[in-house]
Design a protein that fits this description.
The protein is an alpha/beta fold. It contains ten helices and twelve strands. The strands form three sheets. Strands 1, 2, 3, 4, 5 and 6 form a six-stranded mixed beta sheet that branches. It has a four-stranded antiparallel beta sheet with strand order 7-10-8-9, sandwiched between helices. A two-stranded antiparallel ribbon has the order 11-12. Helix 2 (about 35-45) crosses helix 3.
Length: about 230
């Protein structure tokens, strides 16, 4: 059996992907094949017992390094490729439910009173988890959403507006927030949440940009690397 790493066409974010690929081969002799959603539809098929095959090789795991942005699904072919995997017995990492749990709206809902406590029975442990939270609010047409809208319009420097997208490259900050919110209909506002701005301390470091080393002020973000199957 093989692992299919689902990637974007012309993928450039390859360094950690290749690390996973090499470790699987060097340690376990597990072959990793890199395919786009379109490639999956062209090269894979469902066989007996809903098992997914690429040629003669069964696909045991589909590891998604794509599928987190609307641009990853430019046409029906890409959607059909994703659906082919979902219909099969291949293990999706992440599966569809876990994938959706990473959406910004889920983060905002988890911050509501009583929600974390549904999953953590120990009140003290739940309180410790909540200490890590900043304010997260809807931007829909509910009373809470309208209050958040007014707060963001009045003091935009205190907030960040986040769409239902992976990563932080699509967020809106500061003086750009009123411009964005003023341009949205009530229906479109449902696709965003409002978060209190985290004012992390900055420090100097070296970045690699376009093959050049550039001194810049940066902030740190804790990332927990792992794979849940």
């Amino acid at each position: 059996a093989i692992v299919v790493m689902v990637v974007q066409p012309g993928e450039r974010n390859v360094y950690d992907q290749r690390w996973v690929e090499r470790r699987l081969w060097d340690t376990y002799q597990i072959e990793v094949v890199r395919l786009t959603f379109g490639d999956i539809l062209d090269k894979c098929a469902i066989g007996d017992d809903n098992r997914l095959f690429m040629g003669e090789k069964e696909v045991a795991v589909a590891y998604y390094r794509a599928g987190y942005a609307p641009t990853d699904f430019p046409g029906e072919k890409e959607w059909d490729g994703r659906w082919l995997v979902e219909r099969s017995r291949a293990i999706s990492v992440p599966n569809l439910a876990y994938h959706l749990a990473g959406c910004k709206k889920i983060q905002q809902v988890l911050a509501q009173p009583g929600i974390v406590e549904r999953f953590i029975d120990d009140p003290q442990a739940a309180a410790l988890v909540r200490e890590c939270f900043v304010g997260l609010y809807p931007l829909d047409n509910s009373d809470e959403g309208n209050r958040a809208f007014e707060a963001a319009m009045a003091n935009p420097s205190n907030y960040v507006v986040k769409p239902q997208r992976e990563g932080g490259g699509y967020n809106t900050y500061g003086d750009e927030i009123p411009k964005l919110l003023s341009s949205l209909s009530d229906e479109e506002r449902k696709g965003y949440i409002l978060m209190e701005l985290i004012r992390a301390p900055g420090f100097k470091n070296i970045l690699l940009r376009n093959g050049q080393l550039v001194a810049s002020e940066v902030v740190s973000e804790l990332g927990i690397y792992g794979i849940w199957v």
